[in-house]
Amino acid sequence: MGPKTKGAVKCAGCNFKIDSKEPTVEALSKKWHKACFACVNCAKPIDGDFHPVDNKPWCNDCFMEKKAPRCADCGLPISGTSMKTEDGKTFHKSCFDKLSLGVCEACKTDIAYTDPVIEALGNKYHDRCFRCTHCGNAVPENFHAENGQPFCDDCHQKNRVKTSPVCDVCESAITKGTRIEAIGKSYHEACFADAAWGPCDNCHAKVLLTEPSVKVSALNRFWHLGCLNCADCNENIRIKPFYLQQDRPCCEACYVGHIAPKCAGCAKPIADDRLNAMKQSWHPECFVCSVCHNILASFGTEFFNVQGRPYCKRDIEAANITVLN
After folding, report:
1. CA proximity to 142, closest of 124, 157, 129
2. Is the CB of residue 10 less than 8 Å from the CB of residue 18?
3. What is the pLDDT of residues 193-239, one digit of tens each?
4. Residue 311, helix vs strand vs coil
5. Which among 125, 85, 82 has a CA at the least distance from the CA of 103?
6. What stretches of 47-120 show up as alpha helix (H) in DSSP?
7. How many CA atoms lie within 13 A of 306 on its CB side?
8. 238 pairs with which residues across the strands?
9. What is the pLDDT of residues 52-74, one digit of tens each?
10. What is the CA radius of gyration of the chain?
11. Mean of the pLDDT values across residues 298-307?
């Protein structure tokens, strides 16, 4: 048996033999007749740059229209150099260079996406801008913060930084004498006598921390004991139960007497728990089935409105009443 001869090279496009004298194209680790090297999408011959997709050639026009990734910033197709972020978004390099991580708290300019950034004290900084507020040197990893500003260890240790708390009354630093802490604030001992919860909702004068007072937490409002009067009869109610009517205090007698809504079941005033159903107000224990008188106020209990009267589901079915949705 004689030696084996090397097989003829076939075109990757038409699968016919390529004559040694024919013009050819070598691409994608294959050999093609020049006329066969065409875009798989539009079938037009490719004479110049192309884009390999799944190891097949695409002309530039088809690639840009159908296969090229889109820039997450401008929305246009990307050909050539692209940049990709950690969250998987792709950008033109020119668009990527304009991306901002926010504004530097120190220099008030944009922090580029590729800039080293430091996040501290609830803000973002260029790495070059995060410096000791006093000496301007770079701040170490374990830095000190005072009043929202960073300080290096040397400046902090040498007491170059004023760290004294500020009095809530006179707004000056407390550096000498006794300091009083109350309701999360600091006071000079001499100023504490003027420390206040806030203005009285009646007379509008200060309600001092050192005097008896009443606070309605839901409204964050305060009264002097002598100023907490019923908005209806003006009687002082500082040691009596009271209700809020349109955000104003109201004594129990006035509220129950002529302000509280009347129960649709028993016609008596509703002073405490109230249930709204069928466009009326009810005591929870009064909202009952008109037939069996079982209470319908339990969570999830189904009831039906029949000519203005509540019915439970069992009695509706027993009476063969059809309820239209």
Report:
1. 157
2. yes
3. 888 888 998 899 999 988 888 888 777 888 888 888 888 888 888 77
4. strand
5. 125
6. 60-62, 93-96
7. 17
8. none
9. 888 889 888 888 888 788 887 78
10. 41
11. 76
